[in-house]
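Researcher: Before we compare anything, I want clean individual predictions. No alignment, no superposition, just each chain on its own. First chain goes here; please echo the sequence and then give the structure tokens.
Model: Echoing the first chain and its structure:
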Amino acid sequence: MKRLSFLCIFSLFLFACNNDDDTVAACSKATNILASNITTTSVTLSWQDSNNAASYIIEYGISGFVIGTGTTALESNTTLDLNNLLPETTYDVYVQVVCSTDNLSMYSDVYSFTTQSLPVVPEFRQNLSELNLFSGTLSDLNPSVYVFEYNLHSTLFSDYAHKQRLIALPTGASMTYDGDGLPLFPENTVIAKTFFYNNNETDLSLGKRIIETRILIKIDGDWVSGDYRWNDAQTEATLDPIGGDVPVTWIDAEGESNSITYRIPSDTDCLTCHQTNGDLTPIGPKLRTLNFSTNGINQLQALIDSNLLDGVADPATIGELPKWTDTENYTLEQRARAYFDINCAHCHIEGGFCEVQSSLRLAFETSLEDSNIVSRKNSIINRISNYNEGFSMPFIGTTIVHEEGVEILLEYLDTL
């Protein structure tokens, strides 16, 4: 009997609550937030609302902001255009449905989007940051999404400095195959090479010292050069046509301390090496020098697949410059000739700076007979074995002897 009375009372209670005029249906939160038409400074947001409410509160801010501290907007539709945003920045968004003045939904789940990066500027601005080659903190050297990083199979010696190499093509443009050498670059191509030293090669977490970023821009069919010198705080690099000396100290992979006076070239120095028949020209990014795999992917194939290189379908049809440090896959002669090519040939070729001063022709493809290496053997030995400014080779770009490179060249020359 007591149990029956309890059930009756409970039923009456439920009936009374269901007929209470003060009960308000729950306001469901917004779902399926989406971002579209994302640009560098704007975005269109949309969301779904099962309540068919008349208004919505949108709060947004840089990713990680605390609700209540962001920017808010009141919207009567389920779409909203946001403007005046920061480029390449991630934002968080929350939507709250207003079912009535005293009935708000819970906040939606957080939704995040990232604005686009600024395009690369093919101009020589005063500050390197103004060219938009990098994303985020400048000294992190993170390439922009509009830039591709490349490496060379054999590299030029520059007083043991590390180098980051970048190319930025105009949006929708590509390089065109023109043989094993340099491709044809479209107008407004930007090529950048940044020189830096790791403070301690045994512990890369200790950071790096960035010295300079050299820039080539193709303007009205001609290449123009400029050099950006990094400040001591590593926060910016400024255009510097004069160059100068920078003391650098680092610990190498063997734990030994090294000190040099690194020499930043002037604009005139750059022209000395970067010229063919008097015209400024790139040196490094020849297709045969890029034709190798990094992280299991052939660089040229990656460029072809990304529509950044046209006129060729298979990297196997392109020659390859050997890696001068690779003793397993290349002969001593191949390695020595590759070293000559990347370090010396840009001057010692027809049309190069040393065309008249020297009979040496040091391009990898040049036959040994036509290179004149044998007849100039003793002169080569004298000019590479010690560093004497104005006499040693390379003529500019180094201030010390490259011991590992000289060792290979001397070993090779001893066979001739």
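Researcher: Okay. Second chain, same rules.
Model: Second chain and its structure:
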Amino acid sequence: MHRVAALSLVVLAVALMGDGGARADQAATAAWAADPVLAGLVADSLAARPELAAAAAEVRAQAARVPAAGALPDPMLQLGLQNDGFTSIELGTMETSFASIAVSQTLPWPGKRGLRTALAQSGVEQAARAVERLRLSTIADVERGYLRLRLVRERHALLDRQATLWARASEVARLVYASGQGSQADVLRARLEERRLGQRRLALAAEEAQAVHALNRLRGHPLDEPIATAGGLADAPAPGPIDEAAAIAFALAHSPELAAAATAVTATDRTVALARKAWYPDLTVAVGVMVRGVDLPPMWQVSIGGPLPIFAGRKQRRAVEEGQARGVAARLDVEAVAQVLRQRIHDRVTAQRALADTIALYRDGLLGLSQATADSTLAQYQVGKSSLVAVLEASTGVLADQDAYLSALAAAVRIDVAMRELSLVDDATVDAGAMSTGGMAGRATAPATARPSSTGAGAAPLDATPVSTSAGMGGM
């Protein structure tokens, strides 16, 4: 009777595991980007994230500088009195005593105002690149956070199936031991695994809360506000192969960092051109009228003047040399950014190819082999050549492989997110969980690569999301 109960328990476990594998296979047909919950989270974050609003304000600030950069200098008004002697005012009696009013205007050398305007416009373009980088990174941060939340909830489901398995195992082991046919070790092992499940459940609950906190921070909501997920991670698609040539062409055309580096080149060219114009002086034109009194006719004066560039060797020439050196550096930066972009895409293509092969390995062979191992152990148990613990361990291995399969799917989605983010961050990692042995004790969950919510190239991470290694499903 007890052996029949044990066999029923294992059949239930196999059915639970088979259900998980079927759901995971649906990943190839689902539409990750069409998830309405994810779309709402992205829209909320783009509307509420303070970093984006700050970057937009910086664009407006830079734009406000453009008209001022090309404006004429303010004219100067001068009032004066010239008098003969110190004892009395001689205005109207002495020909050289007069009251004067004069207006002067400095006129920059032709071309300088246009170059100053263009240089200020470069600042607007740089600020706009920062906004685009933040926009792409915000979308990617939300997608990674939502992926993390779906993954941890899928692991909760796996853990629930494992809890059902071990609860019944504990009962069967107790009954078998009470009948004198089993061993106390089976009872203790079942109870031990039940307690371990509680520890893993706590770790998963903490990680789920952290994922919710991160998403709510990104969208400006209370940190503990619940977030629903549309189905499990198994509903997400397994991204297809990447066309490397097309991906590189797209990245070179749309990368905010590369555009910012190209804008820096344009800015340095304008700086050099403006420095060359500094050799030519700005001219100041002045017009004045001198009133000498009622009986004497007024006088007038027109003058033009400007600085003499006699120290050009130490000033203007050095400014040109500085701008040229900065131009060389800016062009090398463009080359460096393009090289890094190509490398990152090539790395992601390589990682995605490995993940696709890993997913195929799980789907087409490994999961089946893991299931066959559990079936074989069950057959041995039926003829008394194996223990209940061995049967349960083999069944647990199927669950661990299912978790590793989900990890591979999640890693592939992360690569897809990184491709659309056009980030320079080195994030092309293959999830270690996708390559671990099913049922391996102590297998840790591979963390999602921490990356920045950039405010520009090389910005520090704002939403790095560490994943608790104690929440791994291996060895359950």
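Researcher: What stands out in the second chain?
Model: The CA atoms of residues 177 and 183 lie 6 Å apart. Additionally, The chain has nine helices and four strands.
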